[in-house]
Fold this sequence. Notes:
Radius of gyration: 36 Å
Helix content: 40-55%
Strand content: 5-15%
Shape: elongated
Largest sheet: 5 strands, mixed
Order of helices and strands: HHHHEHEEHEEH
Oligomer: single chain
Amino acid sequence: MNKTLFIAIGSGLLGLGMGLSIGHILTRRQLEQQYADAMQEEIKATKAYYGILHKGDGYETPEKAVKTLGVDTEFNSDDETLQKLVTELKYSTEIVEKNIFDGRSEDDVDYSEEDSNRNSESPYIISVQEYMAGEAEFNQVTVSYFAGDEVLCDDSDDPIDEVETVVGHDNLTKFGHRSNDANIVYVRNEKLQIDFEVIKNNGNYSEIVAGFESSPKLPRRKSRG
């Protein structure tokens, strides 16, 4: 081969290499741009979503609601249906913010004031964590409360007469408080040195335990005129 042929081949290979490199760079830049554009769209959508959830005064008026939600239509701002829809949407969003994005659970609530008001002379509510941990020298007893006829009974299904001194009447109105269960309340009685697990049954003690049936309601007699 002559020198000219070598030069031609070398130039071709160099050109091919440069072409591949430039093509690679252009392709990479194109993909990077597409990725960046996609990310911007995601960020924009996310900002819009959270902007609605944390809207502040975004839905003060129907006009603002339509503008915020991007609805392209004409409407009458005095329309009662639209006003109701905006109000419901605002309320629903506030509920979502409170229950989901607030990030709070019952464990995050400060019960220091409630705990400071505990009186060793009276039964008081404790948390499920306190009950599970147990108090030294305290027994743990499970009792049942039949809400239908307001009867508290022990683990032998015998009615407890001294409700106030055992668990306290007021505590029987607070099922779910600090227990993580809507049908349970934990009560500590320091005098008896007992931690009670009170389980609510919405039925009647007289029917479920004692076996008595509810008296049927008799139809009223028409008065003779």
